[in-house]
Amino acid sequence: MNKKNVYDEIKVEEEKRKVDIKTKKSYDIKAMFSQRVLAFLIDLVLISVISFIITTFVPVNDAATKLYQEQNRVLEGYVDGTVSMEEYVNQMVDLSYDISKQTVIVSIVTIVISLLYYVVYPCYNNGQTFGKKLLKIKIKKTNDKELSMNDLLIRGMINNSILVNIINIILVFSLSKSLYLSTSSLLTVIQYLILIVSLVMIAFTKKAQGLHDIIVKTEVVQSDIVKEDVLCTNEN
């Protein structure tokens, strides 16, 4: 083999290595903190609107209707000043518990919508919800394996309150009113703490992974890969 052929082979290998490095780099660009927060908020608003629209078509029994009317009456009384703050809080807490028992079907429908949006949809959409797609970021495995529905399910259970909502449905029928309210409040506090800790970890750690990311070995990266690769190629 002459020197020219050897040189050509080395040159080809170097060019290939440069392309591989650029491609890998584009895939490993972490999503910015602001992108993740904004995408989360967009998804939260969107899923709330979707759930509200769909659940309006879910039939509600007479007992639940009366409870809603009572809730409105208490609110009006508080606004008018005929109901004190203490009476308002106590009555609203009791009514919320009774409404929770009477509207389990609505709660189940809401959970199903969340599962479809946060688990099924991104599983078939390159690891992206609508918010992530809009912000051009996506979820991927840290080991570059294929993102599975189980990964997204566990992630959604932790990060999108799905697990807490499921537990609350179970507890409302298995615990007394006072115990249910205290347990439900504790679960809500824990959920908020998880979100806060995850936000801090995403913002200030090198790997930019929240608790949900660490548990299922995922990360959120830039998804506008093709554009980045083209820019890298054009620079040469």
Helix/strand layout:
Layout: H1 3-27, H2 33-55, H3 62-80, H4 85-102, H5 104-123, H6 130-134, E1 137-141, H7 149-159, H8 162-174, H9 177-204, H10 211-216, E2 218-222, H11 225-235
Antiparallel strand pairs: 1-2
Helix pairs in contact: 1-11, 2-5, 3-4, 5-7, 5-8, 8-9
Folded structure, characterized:
It is elongated, with a radius of gyration of 25 Å. Residues 226-236 have low confidence and may be disordered. It has two domains: 3-58 and 104-235, no CATH class; 61-102. Helix 2 (33-55) packs across helix 5 and helix 8 (162-174) runs antiparallel to helix 9. The chain has helices at residues 3-27, 33-55, 62-80, 85-102, 104-123, 130-134, 149-159, 162-174, 177-204, 211-216, 225-235, and strands at 137-141, 218-222. With 236 residues, the protein is mainly α. The protein is 76% helix and 4% strand. A two-stranded antiparallel sheet has the order 1-2. 18% of the residues are buried. It contains eleven helices and two strands.
